[in-house]
Amino acid sequence: MRSFLTSILPALLFLSGFGFVSGLSAQEAPTPTTVREVRVRYDGFPSVSEALIRGNIQVQKGELFDQAAIDRSIRSLYRTGFFEFLAADIDEVGNDEVIVTFRVKPKYRISQVKFEGNDKLSNKRLKKEISISEGDFFDEYNAKSDEDAIYALYLKKGYSNVDVDYDYVSDDTTGLVDVTFLIQEGTKIHVGDVSFTGIGDLSASKLRGVMQLKKWNFWTSWLTGKGRFDPDLLVDDRQTLLAYIRDQGYLDVKIPETGIRISYPEENVVNVAFDVDLGKQYSVGTVAVAGNTLFSKEEILDETDLEPGDVFSPSKVAAATEDIRLFYGSDGYLETYVRAMRTPNLETGAIDLTYQISESQKFDVESINLQGNTKTKSIVIIRELALAPGETFDLRRMRNSQMRLENTRYFDSVNLRPESTNVPGKKDLSISVQEGRTGNLTFGAGFSSLESAVFFAEISQGNFDLFNWRSYFQGDGQKFRVRFQIGSKSNEVVIAFEEPWLFERQLALGFEIFRRQTDYNSSEYNELRTGFEVYLRKRLFELVEGRLSYSLENVDIFDVSEDASSQIKEEEGGKLISKVGGTLTRDTRDRLIITRKGNRVELNSQVAGGILGGDVDYWKNQIWASQFIPTFETLNQGFAMYGRIGTIIPYGDSDVPFFDRFFLGGPNTLRGFGYRDVGPVDDTGEPIGGNSFGYLSFEYMVQLADPLEVVLFYDWGYVNSEDWDFNSSAYNDDWGFGFRVFILGAPLRLDFGFPITSSPTNDDGMQFNFSFGTRF
Prior knowledge:
Elements: H1 2-28, E1 34-42, H2 50-56, H3 67-79, E2 83-92, E3 97-106, E4 109-116, H4 123-127, H5 140-156, E5 163-171, E6 176-184, E7 190-197, H6 204-210, H7 221-224, H8 231-246, E8 260-266, E9 269-275, E10 284-290, H9 297-301, H10 314-329, E11 337-344, E12 351-358, E13 364-371, H11 378-382, H12 395-407, E14 411-420, E15 426-435, E16 439-448, E17 454-464, E18 478-487, E19 490-499, E20 508-518, E21 526-539, E22 544-558, H13 566-569, E23 573-587, E24 598-608, E25 618-630, E26 638-650, E27 692-705, E28 708-720, E29 732-743, E30 746-757, E31 767-775
Parallel strand pairs: 1-3, 4-6, 7-9, 10-12, 13-15
Antiparallel strand pairs: 2-3, 5-6, 8-9, 11-12, 14-15, 16-17, 16-31, 17-18, 18-19, 19-20, 20-21, 21-22, 22-23, 23-24, 24-25, 25-26, 26-27, 27-28, 28-29, 29-30, 30-31
């Protein structure tokens, strides 16, 4: 019996417990509660309508009471941003009913935004800087943000000791608030001098160059904004200086916060001095390689620039580490890990360097995965790649592929990376792109010393697809452009198209249809050119591009003056010119605007007439060359040389028409002379060009500010009547200075040219040349 009770006791306890719990649940289950009424009670002025409040309340009369719905209602009302305080009161009224009362305190509405103490900056200027305005709901967070914005504006203007605060006065009876920004402007403070102590042989100018805080420059600071004192910049500049000095080998350098001294030699001028404790300058001791089995030490170190005895530079060590990793990666060893181990040598005082290498297996390209090309066809991306499935996965070629894709300008972002697969020794090449805007509709205006005003409209598509109307003619990588231009002395219509990959080969095919009329070449006649050009273009070597073209154009000389010479009158009317041309171009320039490094050489030859037909027969040859040399990093200074030489040889029984001869003078050649004024003239003194010419120009460029460059130049050149005549005895030359102001990416060119040696038919006075073009 005892064992029986023992065995059934747990079951009895379980069943009795179950019955107890069930009975308890049945007794305590609440009766459903109904919402009798939903009320809204304002705490303060009712500046928010009750209709808006009820529109955000998710509890309705007659519904079952739901606390979650109350909470959602509170959150919804808070999200409007109209309330300072919200609460919901639940009152039981019997018969299992409740009354829900939402207590709301609306924010004050801003009646006025005022400024006090602002003598240097107008109310209108300050209102542009803040976010709050009359009629908005007042929010202290926004007011504080606007206070900071005004403070930052004054700092930008050079008022480094400005103080800004805000205050407000509210009226509970109207629900309105007046907000006042209280400003103590102080004085505008300029940086007079930035100096250093304890820097040894380090260049003070280079230290200043890496800093954000700059000395005030009377000539340029008004334009650049640099030179105004901002104490917040000193914190960042201290860290920047420490990093730069460590990179010169002074690894133990110290600039204590107390070592930044500020003095005021004048009321509105501050001098900043940095006390630097350089410590010892370290050099590179021995350089070793460990863990390498695939390549020899010599092969690996040939990829780096650090050698024993060099100044120990942390950035160069990091670069050398990356170079070794890239060296392995270029042969497919993608997961090779390289770590630079530094060991101070107590005997030599140098730092010994060991590149610890953990080599990986070799990987090939398994497949290519594309993501993000919603507009551009996959083939357009793949044909730019220097890697293909089955090849060794080369990191350098992957980076070159990324640069190629970026240079297409089809995408806002391009990212190439190796991606793991389930196949040993294989990785996928993953390509992720974000489509960019490749089409432009541009309206613009310009002016120059040749023409008072020019207006143009242009539509272009850099990722055109001639046969894909469903995607709005986009996605195949073709180029298309239509341009209309009208000016006071010229007009132009151009339609151009280019297929950069003809038959999926790296061979471009393009054409251009044009109509160009110019009235500024001469006061004796006007000129109209109408025709087309077809060309093939191909990159022959890494930096060399070849171009082969055929063009057919009709040149019409009209409105010839009665006083014009016989040479000009003979060309009146239209002439058909049929010619082929070939061009070789080598370009290593670092950039197209504000160029400082590299060169460009172009050779061009054209043959007109003969078996090609047309009304003229000649052979035209030209060479262009330019070289850019950086000189000083300060103010981004540089030197440039430009040269051109050419000759045009008639054959058969025709002469070269004057409109295809060579001319010099004007804003793009000899800037000290009038447009096309240098060279042979007719009996009336009108320029008629020559069959041979030579031209040289030298420029020294100083970038005073991001948008401003100053140029000092010298131009030299000659134009001779006969072909192959490069006698320079009749040269003209000039010198001058100019300015380049870059506005919205377009340069405003202002040049003052002064003749030195001038032909008798040329004016001796100063020439002012200017040109400008931009978008709006």
